[in-house]
Design brief:
127 residues; STM4215-like; 2 helices
Length: 127
């Protein structure tokens, strides 16, 4: 059973304290800064007696401050809210087995010269 939508809903809810609650699943052309965007890339797996999905979750924080501090602080808040917080994240209709920071952790200024983006990726396993 596909758990991506339920997992993203749970993660957005968990991240309500990030960026003043401005957490979205798609780019926001007229958003108030800072804001965060959460996306997932998912892959099913099967074992002898169960199946589930492995998800690569990407949290992107966007800030318009002159320095990267705000973007980095919001990324840190997202890390604290998600990394190894399986008991605090309820995925309706599924069980979150694990969620850990895994992969990219970057911060850079975008080509517009005024938007900082801080990225962090997590690996989540849901059955």
């Amino acid at each position: 059973m596909d758990s991506a939508a339920a997992l993203l809903t749970a993660i957005v809810s968990r991240l309500s304290g990030v960026c003043g609650g401005r957490v979205y699943g798609a780019p926001q052309p007229n958003a108030t800064y800072p804001y965060a965007m959460v996306t997932a890339q998912s892959e099913p797996f099967s074992a002898d007696d169960f199946s589930g999905m492995s998800h690569n979750i990407r949290v992107q924080v966007f800030s318009r401050q002159k320095k990267p501090g705000e973007a980095l602080a919001e990324r840190k808040t997202a890390y604290t809210a998600l990394h190894r917080q399986e008991d605090a994240i309820t995925v309706t209709g599924h069980t979150l087995v694990s969620i850990e920071q895994d992969g990219v952790a970057d911060c850079f200024i975008e080509d517009d010269g005024k938007t900082w983006q801080a990225i962090m990726e997590f690996k989540a396993v849901v059955v």
